Amino acid sequence: MILNMGPQHPSTHGVLRVLLEIDGETVVRIMPDIGYLHTGIEKTCEAKFYQQVVPLTDRIDYLCPMTNNLCYALAVEKLLGLEIPPRAQWLRVLLNELTRINSHLVWLGTHAMDIGALTVFLYCFREREDILRLFEAVSGQRMMTSYFRIGGVALEPPLGFFDRVREFANRFPSKVDEYENLLTGNPIWVMRTKGVARISAEDAIALGASGPTLRGSGVDIDLRRDMPYSGYENFKFKVPIAQEGDVFARYICRVQELRESIAIVQQALDGMPEGPIKADAPKVVLPDREKMKTQMEALIYHFKIITEGFAVPAGEVYQAVESPRGEMGYYVVSDGTAKPYRVHMRSSCLANLQLLPKMCEGRLIADVVAAIGSIDIVLGEIDR
Amino acid sequence: MPLAPAITDLEQLKEHPAIARLRAWNSAAVEGAKFDREEMSIFIERSSIREACALLRDDPGCPFNYLSDVTCVDWYPSEPRFEVIYHLLSIAKKERVRLKVRLGNDSPALESVTAVWPSANYFEREVFDLFGIRFTRHPYLRRIQMPENWEGHPLRKDYPVEGYR
Predict the structure, then answer these.
(1) In the CATH scheme, what architecture does the domain A2-383 have?
(2) How far apart are CA B143 and CA B15, in angstroms?
(3) d(CA A79, nearest CA chain B) in Å
(4) Cβ-based contacts of B68 with chain A (< 8 Å)
(5) Fewer CB atoms inside 10 Å of the end CB: C or N, chain A?
């Protein structure tokens, strides 16, 4: 029998349609069908100035907007050859790790809810709300932040912001203990996840998996540590690995990452350097509001950037960052004008979704739900 | 930090392990190379892309065993019009390399690399869908983002962006 799961189904995390060929309760063949959320962001980018693309990148993956901002900003800065001041880099790392926690909390809550543990969802969203309030304080927006700009960050964080982050960072590890108390030793959770949707390291590499999905199969790679960007080489953290390659292994990897991320946040708070938050490049970076009122040049540059954009030397760059879901990559091609010739996003979810048939074929329908949850997909990123 | 000029002379870049390996196998397969902004691009002759990928994947010295991405750039109206781009990553050595294949407008087609990396499946379907590049020997070359009955390939530069269709 052929069964349609989705596109409107609570446990497909968006508008994923999965075609299931089933024999009783057993899945014989499974085919994901995507494209319901395709909005043509890559095409839209070609008609915008470089700085106008930043708000579009938020909307690709609505659970980790800062990661997308960061990846795009890094790519364009590499094209321009811009040097970013240390304070901006550390702010970026701090907020990027908060974004990772935010994204993992949504994943943990919804994934546990799919499998039937409803309480975890409420616990996770309680802490997520705290992070969204921090985002609102720093950027004025809860979700579509657009806080990282080409050449630095938009604004200096408000007074008392770092104290609020520190208060959250001190409180958070005990909250992770709470989630683990509910799940890690829970026999029902273990039965639903251990040995389910197993994938070997060879298959995971061949099928293009990345992030916790790949590390859950025992492949030791994390772009933050191995190919550092934005000053990650200054931070000490462990990369959690699990060998089993099943749903439980991916769960353990992500929960450990929550703890590592909060450790990085603590380090960023302790060592936050003083100094400017924007690169010294008046033709690219918008001037401060105060300077515009007193200096003629600042006003002229502001006018020119807003009306004409800034030209980027011809060339191409592929910049990858470790997003909560895996390798997020931006391939930006410039032809020397003020608008990008081509922007392509390497979506980690699109590649991870290809693992689904390998994970589910020959198993029960109920395991499909657990498998979809464990690869942590965001359809906005898959379809773009 | 001023940008260093790009190196495009193949002779200067022949020491790079991937280029050396490819040239030792078949010197006609490498059409050119570019080293720009710390990133290496190698232009591959159209008919040898699958074998070149398999060779780089199985290279014992520096195995580029992970396919990060496949995409395409449309340089309309210049010829050759399309560039199909493969981003390879070596998980062991933490290195990246970019392979490029140039295709003309008349029949943009090349061999699929799904036999080398099954992960190319969705990436190539997306390039087919949005650019109209045909990948021969692909197991399931159908539209992936646009509806099945869609006409045209939206990411081509000559695709109209406004007005009624």
Answers:
(1) Orthogonal Bundle (1.10)
(2) 40
(3) 7
(4) 208, 318, 320, 327, 329, 346
(5) N
